[in-house]
Amino acid sequence: MLVTQVSLYIxxxxxxxxxxxxxxxxxxxxxxxxxxxxxxxxxxxxxIPEEFIMPEKEQPxxxxxxxxxxxxxxxxxSDPDQEKLVGLIADASxxxxxxxxxxxxIPSDLIAExxxxxxxxxxxxxxxxxxxxxxxxxxxxxxxxxxxxxDPQEKKTWVDHLFHRIWPPPSIxxxxxxxxxxxxxxxxxxxxxxxRDVVDKLFTTLSLGLGLEGHVLKEAAGGEQIEYMLKxxxxxxxxxxxxxxxVEAHTDLSAITILVPNEVPGLQIFKDDHWIEAKYIPxxxxxxxxxxxxxxxxxxxxxxxxxxxxxxxxxxMSWPVFLEPPGExxxxxxxxxxxxxxxxxxxxxxxxxxxxxxxxxxxx
Length: 364
What we know:
single chain; alpha+beta; 9 helices
């Protein structure tokens, strides 16, 4: 009997010891995750770590165009002249791959509430933001975090982010929607409702601009199953904004990206061999043509090459919504744009395979 009690005591003690080690390991892992965001780094107020310093050919102080540059087209989405509207959007999509829209139907106070809720989230203590953190072993990009855990040989960019889907309802995972501030969820739900009308109008005008029926591009990109992936980019103040970037040069893997910026400048697009800064227009939406529309149009519409700079004394933020086909959807050049004189310029493949190659920098 005594031997049994001793054995049970030893087993119980071992169990408690292992459990304490496990809890310490979990706590350490949470702490390790927590410091892997820009906002929680400690650094010299006049310097940044070496891994954030871009090569000279990418440094914004050297490569940003300083002369008189053309402005990104700004288009009134409420223009009653449909033919004119279609022409303006088609021309901008072919020549620039980007344009801004005003009078788009999303109330300015709702945009302000969206921005306010996002700003409040990023001002929370780090441990509260970690509630929405992306799990380390997750194959999805949803959640709060940064890219600091990428390949140590790569240059780091000066940005933290929050990813989560806002439409359609079956694709939403509320695990990654902040509960604090309390207004966050309701504001994002309302924003998604208004966003749907803007999306439909953009797809329709882009289709008509290619000589197609208005429904073609949206259906080819996934129809009502198109996923709206919201990202909040948070670029903290940076002591050396001349040396680093918020986001390196890239095109979006989406079909279309619809972006709301704050008033701090930073979005730059590559046009005519120059990096040109986008003009800030209050309440305007910035529309990016993404890779999938370029593929569907067989190159008639151009995905815009763009990057983001940061500021020294102010935080820059942006709220892009990436319109992405469902993963299993096969995307390729539409038959209308292929003939003996115009062979396919892109491979036809499932969107999830395209995304995997793009995110892992593999050849398409």
